[in-house]
């Protein structure tokens, strides 16, 4: 993997590991006051707890003395920005003081499943220096200043006041620019550049786009989320790109996939891309809505700009080095994959969490029926794939009840959770199941692995601390005020936990 400052920051903040002290193993989360909505009665090691939105899926990111978290606008921090919005909140790392927010009004002019009411900003920020990158449920890719507007409105994008004002739209286009615009304040986000992939490329996400953007060599790898509309059987623009490579400095798309995914999408495309080095080459891995894992050689920024200009400034096409069919029927003797089926009850397989690379040339990938609209019983399976050739090394049988949570791997052990509350430990080389530990609730969040411990939450308002290793052990189980769908994060000896309605900073020893 290329060692550069931006990629290192991305790895630290999106896949954090503490090296600065003992992390907490238990705490008292207190309770939510009905009148104030504040958290009270916490234990002394809870540095602060602040209310956030009721729908929170993104990982907290701790950087530059700040905490960033994507959510919905149920807790209104600025009355000027009230109403139905997708927001990204910024708090002071030490005190929990609210600093600024990205307040994007919901755009129901397209459909009820475009930037849907039950989703906010679900993209985890990718931090590079004093900038960070996210996607939105409206099909945008944004570059923002980590300091908000406190240090002025940096360009080239300077139309934030209009963007943050609810407006009349029709099929995603503004039809009334005469709406009274609320002036900007220092508590608003500063957008450096904005690219509208829906407006420019007709790439339309379903519900939201939760892509965690990958940064490398001055470039961004982005899943556009192009998907079916509210009918679940019609993709408005099947020719739109699913994967983009963009210039990080200028916000210009330079390349797109040539994967021919088309309309073979059972519900949405929510699989973030992954990046790593295989046999000395930089590689991109992307799981499409058609249930196929694609591997692409990652071009350098210099080479890509050269191709882009030689191509008449048209997007360079990314051709896969290999494809892996995620339908398990393809890997049975004489196996044949039936034609792809869209819509409710689809038996076709789709890509679920992001591809996971280890240091041994392996890619781990979960495939399954769509978790919401696919065939029942909902089944998934876990595949271990040779990253160089795309050949199957091993695979599990069907995981009854399915799985949607991203996985983690360390010291030759692969950890994952399913939607029935089971937590697994597999041998990464052979696929042998070392143990399965029953927990309570549906687990969506990526487990956090730090200091030999595993931190993970569930939708039953439970937060668990487990012992990593060959023997299953629950260190502690904590009942929280609300459900947890977001992964936890660490910075120093502090654990950050985001749930539906709260954000905690819990100190260790």
Care to describe what's here?
The structure is a single chain. The chain has one domain: 7 Propeller (Methylamine Dehydrogenase, Chain H). The longest helix has 10 residues, at 5-14. It has four helices and 39 strands. Residues 1-20 have low confidence and may be disordered. The strands form ten sheets. Strands 23, 24, 25, 26, 27 and 28 form a six-stranded antiparallel sheet that branches. Strands 14-15-16-17-21 form a five-stranded mixed sheet. Strands 3-39-38-37 form a four-stranded antiparallel sheet, with no helix packed on it. It is mainly β and 509 residues long.
The first-level CATH class is given as: Mainly Beta
Number of strands: 39
- Count of alpha and pi helical runs: 4
The assigned structural class equals mainly beta
**Unreliable segments of 5+ consecutive residues:** 1-20
User: Overall mean pLDDT score?
Assistant: 92
Radius of gyration: 22 Å
Main β-sheet description: 6 strands, antiparallel
The CATH superfamily appears as YVTN repeat-like/Quinoprotein amine dehydrogenase
Write the CATH architecture name: 7 Propeller
Helix % is: under 10%
- The rough form would be described as globular
The percentage of residues in β strands lies in 35-45%
**Number of domain modules:** 1
Distance between the termini: 33 Å
CATH topology: Methylamine Dehydrogenase, Chain H
Layout of strands and helices, then pairs:
Blueprint: H1 5-14, E1 31-32, E2 39-40, E3 46-51, E4 61-63, E5 66-72, E6 85-92, E7 98-105, E8 126-128, E9 131-135, E10 140-145, H2 160-163, E11 168-170, E12 173-176, E13 191-196, H3 197-201, E14 214-216, E15 219-223, E16 243-247, E17 252-257, E18 274-278, E19 281-287, E20 292-297, H4 301-310, E21 316-318, E22 322-325, E23 350-351, E24 356-357, E25 362-368, E26 379-386, E27 392-395, E28 399-400, E29 408-410, E30 413-417, E31 422-427, E32 433-438, E33 448-450, E34 453-457, E35 462-467, E36 474-479, E37 489-491, E38 494-499, E39 502-507
């Amino acid at each position: 993997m290329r060692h550069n400052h931006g990629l290192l920051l991305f790895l630290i903040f999106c896949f954090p590991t503490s090296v600065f002290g003992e992390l907490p193993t238990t705490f008292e989360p207190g309770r939510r006051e009905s009148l104030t909505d504040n958290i009270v009665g916490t234990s002394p090691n809870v540095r602060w707890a602040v209310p956030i939105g009721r729908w929170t899926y993104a990982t907290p990111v701790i950087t530059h003395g700040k905490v960033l978290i994507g959510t919905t606008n149920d807790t209104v921090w600025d009355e000027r920005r009230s109403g139905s919005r997708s927001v990204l909140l910024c708090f002071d790392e030490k005190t929990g003081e609210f600093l600024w927010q990205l307040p994007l009004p919901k755009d129901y002019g397209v459909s009820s499943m475009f930037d849907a009411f039950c989703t906010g900003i679900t993209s985890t920020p990718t931090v590079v220096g004093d900038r960070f990158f996210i996607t939105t449920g409206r099909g945008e890719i944004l570059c923002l200043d980590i300091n908000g507007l406190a240090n002025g409105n940096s360009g080239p994008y300077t139309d934030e006041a209009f963007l943050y004002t609810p407006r009349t739209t029709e099929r995603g286009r503004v039809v009334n620019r005469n709406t009274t615009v609320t002036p900007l304040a220092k508590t608003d986000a500063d957008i450096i550049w904005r690219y509208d992939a829906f407006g420019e490329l007709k790439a339309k996400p379903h519900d939201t786009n939760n892509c965690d953007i990958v940064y490398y060599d001055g470039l961004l790898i982005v899943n556009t989320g192009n998907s079916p509309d509210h009918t679940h059987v019609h993709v408005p623009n099947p020719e739109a790109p699913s994967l983009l490579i963009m210039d990080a400095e200028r916000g210009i798309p330079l390349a797109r996939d040539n994967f021919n995914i088309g309309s073979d999408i059972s519900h949405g495309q929510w699989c973030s891309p992954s990046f790593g080095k295989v046999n000395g080459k930089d590689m991109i891995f992307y799981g499409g809505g058609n249930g196929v894992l694609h591997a692409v050689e990652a071009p350098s920024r210099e080479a890509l700009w050269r191709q882009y200009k030689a191509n008449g400034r048209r997007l360079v096409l990314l051709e896969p080095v290999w494809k892996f069919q995620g339908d398990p029927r393809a890997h049975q003797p004489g196996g044949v994959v039936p034609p792809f089926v869209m819509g409710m009850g689809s038996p076709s397989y789709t890509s679920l969490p992001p591809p996971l690379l280890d240091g041994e040339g392996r890619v781990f990938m979960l495939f399954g029926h769509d978790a919401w609209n696919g065939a029942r019983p909902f089944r998934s399976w876990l595949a271990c794939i040779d990253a160089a050739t795309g050949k199957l090394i091993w695979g599990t049988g069907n995981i009854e009840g399915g799985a949607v949570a991203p996985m983690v791997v360390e010291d030759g052990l692969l950890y994952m959770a399913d939607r029935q509350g089971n937590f697994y430990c597999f041998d990464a080389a052979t696929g042998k199941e070392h143990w399965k530990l029953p927990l309570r609730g549906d687990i969506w969040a990526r487990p956090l692995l730090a200091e030999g411990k595993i931190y993970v939450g569930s939708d039953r308002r439970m937060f668990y601390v487990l012992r990593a290793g060959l023997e299953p052990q629950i260190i502690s189980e904590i009942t929280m005020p609300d459900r947890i769908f977001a992964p936890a994060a660490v910075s120093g000896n502090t654990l950050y936990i985001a749930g539906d309605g709260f954000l905690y900073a819990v100190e260790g020893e």
